[in-house]
Design goal:
Layout lengths: L1 H16 L15 E13 L23 E13 L2 E15 L14 E20 L6 H7 L6 E15 L2 E3 L6 E3 L20 E15 L3 E12 L14 H8 L1 H7 L26 E13 L13
């Protein structure tokens, strides 16, 4: 993971160093404000689901593409410099994980599942490069290329901070009905020896980049990838060890015990042979990613009209 962070930082720094200017000096100042929308897909990296192999924390190699769901976003960008932006974005994403969809020998028997809507608001710094397609050539050629002379290719990397809301729900075994998992305290939250109840609001660090093709400096289309490091392990409601099902049923009802452990092969005391509670999830924080198509519109600053001076 350190190599990934190093590569992202290297790309951002390189973008700043090798950024290209507009056709004219300070031309970029006329195009500071941009609004954009994104539409695409989202996926989850955490305790549940994954590929048919041993789980790899944080790695896109563990993505289960059968659990890919939708993502939508919109935001605004302000250009601070010809190659540096600040942007704010709102994202709505759906993430999902299901042990039954993997053949991993450790996760599949656990038989846990979840889905959650995620609402995220973030602000980020962007640094990038731009290459402009210039018009020119002989008269006959120039006429055909005139409308493309302001076309540009843009590549940006970004790093930011965000806050997001999530609410994991699980499918009741033997049905297609989903129920909110947090109120069920599936790992004994609030009981003796159990963990504290987790919050449904957490911070994220969005890391990624996007490419966009700009036509006439106004309209652009592109594609954006974003990876989020988070500070919660409970996007999927799994993050610790099993709790005594009898205590769960007595305090939170039989559905709590049922959703906490839909696999009947776990001993009733939910403990290893040494008496320590059996592991339900690992201690690594959850992450989620998105890949979205992007469309944007840039506002051109209007030229200020000269003031007429009075002769009197």
């Amino acid at each position: 993971m350190k190599r990934v962070y190093f590569l992202i930082i290297f790309c951002i720094v390189s973008s700043c160093v090798f950024a290209q200017a507009f056709l004219r000096p300070h031309e970029w100042k006329k195009f500071r404000r941009e609004i954009f929308v994104t539409l695409g897909s989202a996926n989850f990296l955490g305790d549940l689901g994954g590929r048919d192999r041993k789980g790899t924390d944080y790695s896109p190699a563990d993505l289960d593409f059968s659990q890919t769901r939708s993502a939508f976003g919109f935001g605004a960008t302000y250009r601070l410099h010809k190659n540096i932006n600040v942007a704010s974005k709102f994202n709505y994403l759906v993430v999902k994980g299901d042990d039954a969809k993997t053949n991993d020998i450790y996760r599949r028997p656990r038989n846990l599942n979840f889905k959650s809507n995620i609402f995220e608001l973030s602000v980020r710094g962007e640094a990038g490069i731009q290459r402009i397609k210039r018009g020119g050539g002989h008269y006959g050629v120039q006429r055909n290329t005139q409308k493309f002379k302001n076309m540009s290719h843009n590549l940006y990397g970004f790093l930011g901070i965000g806050v997001f809301y999530f609410n994991p729900k699980g499918r009741i075994p033997g049905t297609n009905e989903y129920v909110a998992l947090r109120p069920l305290h599936t790992e004994g939250q609030g009981l003796e020896g159990g963990p504290k109840q987790y919050k449904r609001i957490s911070l994220s660090i969005p890391i990624g980049g996007y490419y966009k093709l700009t036509v006439s400096k106004i309209w652009s289309i592109g594609i954006e990838f974003c990876y989020r490091k988070t500070f919660t392990d409970y996007i999927d409601d799994v993050g610790g060890v099993y709790y005594d099902p009898a205590a769960l049923a007595a305090n939170y009802g039989p559905l709590s015990a049922k959703m906490a452990d839909p696999y009947l092969g776990i001993p009733t005391d939910h403990a290893n042979v040494d008496g320590v509670a059996a592991q339900r999830g690992d201690k690594q924080k959850d992450t989620f990613v998105s890949l979205e198509l992007r469309g944007s519109y840039t506002f051109k600053q209007q030229r200020k009209s000269a003031r007429l001076r009075s002769k009197f």
